């Protein structure tokens, strides 16, 4: 089922790639928040492009412990990647068209808008994590800070100031 009304389609499609030390609840929280961000942008921009959602795990952040991001109580600031993007251990590609998600094998031809999401691996070991995202049309990444609060992962910060209000909406949507 690739319909938008199946909110679990993305997590179901990537779950076979998760390792024993990857928290499926973390992945579910990440995918819900970032799919919503993707769809929000999709709704406000021209549809004459192919819209692609790329998500994958990164186990080897180059310099994660040398600096910090002070949002929402502080996080490790992921930086120092080769070619400026985190290297993904594995990834899944989805196209979005006609209100449907479709798992695809490779990037389609020209005129595409790509949203690339790098999720830290080994999330079972940690109580917080920063997810690196970047749109193909932008040089600037946006970071999302997640915390495991009382056994439930919540998005508590976004590095793009315009999105801070959105983060609160995400929390409210998941916990009415």
Detailed description of the structure:
- With 176 residues, the chain is an alpha+beta fold.
- It has one domain.
- It contains three helices and nine strands.
- The protein has helices at 9-14, 24-44, 164-174, and strands at residues 50-58, 68-69, 75-76, 90-97, 100-104, 112-120, 128-135, 142-149, 152-158.
- The strands form two sheets. Strands 5-4-1-6-7-8-9 form a seven-stranded mixed β-sheet.
- A hairpin with a 5-residue loop joins β2 and β3 (75-76).
- The longest helix has 21 residues, at 24-44.
- The chain starts with 8 loop residues before the first helix and ends with a helix.
- Mean pLDDT is 80; it is low at 163-176.
Task: Sum up the overall morphology in one term.
Answer: globular
Q: Which structural category fits the helices and strands?
A: alpha+beta
Largest sheet: 7 strands, mixed
Number of strands: 9
Please outline what is shown here.
Helix content is 22%, strand content 33%. It has helices spanning 9-14, 24-44, 164-174, and strands spanning 50-58, 68-69, 75-76, 90-97, 100-104, 112-120, 128-135, 142-149, 152-158.
Features:
176 residues, alpha+beta, 3 helices
List the helices and strands and how they pair.
Blueprint: H1 9-14, H2 24-44, E1 50-58, E2 68-69, E3 75-76, E4 90-97, E5 100-104, E6 112-120, E7 128-135, E8 142-149, E9 152-158, H3 164-174
Parallel strand pairs: 1-6
Antiparallel strand pairs: 1-4, 2-3, 4-5, 6-7, 7-8, 8-9
């Amino acid at each position: 089922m690739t319909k938008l009304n199946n909110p679990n389609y993305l997590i179901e499609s990537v779950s076979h790639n998760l390792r024993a030390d990857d928290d499926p609840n973390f992945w579910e929280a990440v995918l819900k928040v970032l799919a919503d961000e993707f769809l929000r942008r999709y709704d406000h921009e021209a549809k004459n492009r192919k819209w692609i959602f790329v998500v994958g795990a990164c186990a080897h952040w180059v310099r994660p412990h040398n600096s910090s991001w002070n949002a929402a109580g502080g996080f490790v600031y992921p930086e120092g990647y080769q070619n400026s993007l985190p290297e993904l251990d594995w990834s899944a590609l989805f196209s979005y068209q006609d209100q449907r998600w479709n798992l695809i094998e490779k990037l389609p031809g020209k005129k595409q808008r790509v949203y690339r999401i790098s999720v830290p691996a080994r999330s079972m070991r940690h109580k917080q994590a920063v997810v690196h995202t970047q749109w193909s049309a932008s040089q600037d990444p946006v970071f999302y800070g997640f915390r495991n609060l009382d056994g439930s992962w919540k998005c508590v910060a976004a590095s793009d100031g315009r999105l801070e209000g959105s983060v609160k909406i995400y929390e409210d949507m998941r916990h009415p």
